[in-house]
Design goal:
elongated; five-stranded parallel beta sheet; 15 helices; four-stranded antiparallel beta sheet
Length: 552
């Protein structure tokens, strides 16, 4: 993946902050007011000391009142700023999570996932947190720091212009803004984020398949690989920390020198009678208000570098092309699927999966698709669903009055039951309602009966029985039948079944086909199976052969 330029990262962040910018402004204004009160506090303290030492004859009580007022105002403004930034951050984080999740769910699928699911989660969680923290906390802090630095320098210059010039000269900030520093920090941060993603991907995948890992006695190797990745991450973090610490220490030398110069300036001024105690106290407080912003600025530079890395990683997600958007095209009555001379191959593959495939799945038909593994049976279903697009040829869905080309907008006419266990964590009722959120109890009962899943009603909690991740708590056959019932609840008049009985015994499998034939009259059913006995019970059979057309 190519790196974004800094201006491109800033543009992306600006777009991502839409809807939250006003909150950031409020937080910044609260910080600016706090800085103003802080600078006024320095002025008040100087006068209090001058009054106490007899240099000034102003009212002591008045300035004590101003001092108490400043302290209360600083406390109040600090609370307001903290509250505002926290609210803005959680709102923006939730907003970004929602936008990224929606974008990924609607992005095109080309047959191969671009990112590992663990990497996606790492980007959505960690990189989004980095972005929102920077926009809602770091950016206001930097703006407030600039105001504080400018104000402190102005007041210090009013006291002694020469001291101000010396302090600016001996505090070497430019080193942290050098291109080599920024470039190296961005590279280090990118490596760390990528390794962190690999760690999360490794843990997620092995936890998801931990039963297989244990039965294959691969646990030790999985743990060792995690340790290797963690060691690599640890070394990368150490190198970035050492490099950053060295750079900051160079600046700290300048800060320490500046404070020493200001302090000694005041000492000699007191000795010579050119500086009052109040003026020296003001000197030291203002120097502190100059040094602290500079320290804060130096600490924020690595933060900005890390957020640019996070922005690049999130921009890679938002740059994924979306499926064609538009209004759903629903056809009424009995529907058919006509496939004409379709050719298809997956990206970066040297083999055509389908080469000139044609067939007309007539309305109301029950068609079995059989063939060896790898001949393109499941790919054909994905083409009908418009998850992938043919290189050549055409796929249309039609009724007696009209026909439309298969697209994401025609999926409303289709109900798809994929191969294997596809249940979500939650109750059986929750899983069924995914097929049709408006389904009634009677609808669910009918669908479960047709799918030979009446066993659900003999469970202690019935429809409210809780399933774990991927249907944990149910057998493979039970989970498969519930998934079929979920597909039957969908309103579409075309039912696509990919090996729907792979986990069923022969008796249950035969009963399922009988109930499907009797219970879904008027629907067009396309059933992928490798079992000849099931194919023999269907009204039509399509036997697919493997194409071996190699690209040059």
């Amino acid at each position: 993946m190519s790196s974004l330029r800094i201006n491109e990262c800033i543009h992306w962040l600006w777009a991502a902050s839409r809807g939250f910018r006003l909150s950031v402004v409020y937080c910044t204004l609260a910080g600016v007011f706090n800085v103003s009160v802080s600078l006024f506090f320095v002025f008040v303290c100087k006068h209090l000391i001058d009054i106490a030492t007899g240099v000034s004859d102003d009212s002591l009580g008045t300035y004590i009142g101003w001092m108490a007022g400043c302290m209360c105002a600083q406390l109040l403004l600090s609370v307001i700023r903290s509250r505002q930034s926290s609210r803005a951050e959680i709102r923006m984080r939730n907003g970004l999570h929602g936008k990224l999740f929606a974008h990924l769910m609607e992005s095109q699928w080309n047959g191969r996932e671009t990112f590992h699911s663990g990497d996606l989660l790492n980007r959505i969680e960690a990189d989004t947190a980095s972005v929102t923290d920077t926009v809602c906390r770091t950016v206001p802090t930097v703006l407030v720091t600039i105001v504080q630095l400018g104000g402190a320098l102005y007041f210090l210059s009013r006291l002694d212009m020469r001291l101000t010039g010396i302090l600016i000269f001996i505090m070497p900030m430019a080193i942290l803004f050098s291109k080599s520093y920024v470039r190296k920090m961005r590279r280090m941060s990118r490596e760390i984020r990528e390794t962190d993603s690999r760690i999360q991907s490794h843990m997620q995948e092995n936890l998801q398949h931990r039963i297989i890992v244990r039965t294959l006695e691969y646990t030790r190797q999985a743990v060792e690989k995690l340790g290797t990745l963690q060691t690599s991450l640890q070394g990368q973090v150490y190198r970035r920390t050492d490099f950053s610490a060295f750079s900051r220490s160079m600046v700290q030398i300048g800060f320490m020198t500046g404070y020493a110069v200001a302090f000694l300036w005041g000492v000699f001024g007191l000795r010579d009678g050119t500086v009052t105690f109040g003026m020296m106290a003001a000197f030291l407080q203002l120097v502190s208000q100059i040094q602290r912003p500079m320290v804060d600025m130096s600490r924020q530079i690595p933060v900005f570098i890390r957020v640019f890395t996070a922005t690049e990683r999130l921009a890679e997600l938002t740059s994924l092309p979306l499926e064609r958007q538009g209004k759903s095209v629903r056809l009424t009555g009995n529907l058919g699927i006509r496939i004409s001379h379709v050719r298809f191959s997956y990206p970066d593959s040297g083999r055509e999966v389908l080469a000139g495939f044609s067939h007309d799945f007539r309305p109301g038909s029950l068609t079995a698709i059989v063939g060896e593994t790898g001949v393109g049976k499941s790919t054909l279903i994905k083409l009908i669903l418009a998850l992938v697009q043919p290189k050549e040829g055409n796929i249309v869905i039609y009724n007696e009055q009209e026909e439309v080309t298969a697209s994401p907008q025609t999926r409303c006419n289709l109900s798809y039951v994929p191969q294997g266990n596809t249940l979500f964590s939650g109750t059986i009722r929750d899983n069924l309602l995914i097929g049709n959120p408006n389904a009634t109890e009677a609808d669910m009962r009918s669908a479960l009966h047709t799918a030979v899943a009446d066993f659900v009603f003999s469970l202690p909690d019935g429809l409210d029985t809780v399933c774990g991740e991927q249907g944990t708590g149910l057998s493979e056959g039970q989970a498969q039948r519930i998934a079929i019932a979920r597909g039957l609840l969908r309103p579409g008049n075309i039912l696509l079944l990919d090996e729907p009985s792979s986990a069923l015994d022969s008796q249950t499998e035969e009963e399922l086909l009988k109930r499907l034939t009797a219970g879904i009259r008027g629907k067009t059913v396309v059933l992928i199976t490798h079992r000849e006995r099931i194919a023999g019970l269907c009204s039509k059979v399509v036997r697919m052969k493997e194409y071996r057309l190699e690209f040059k």
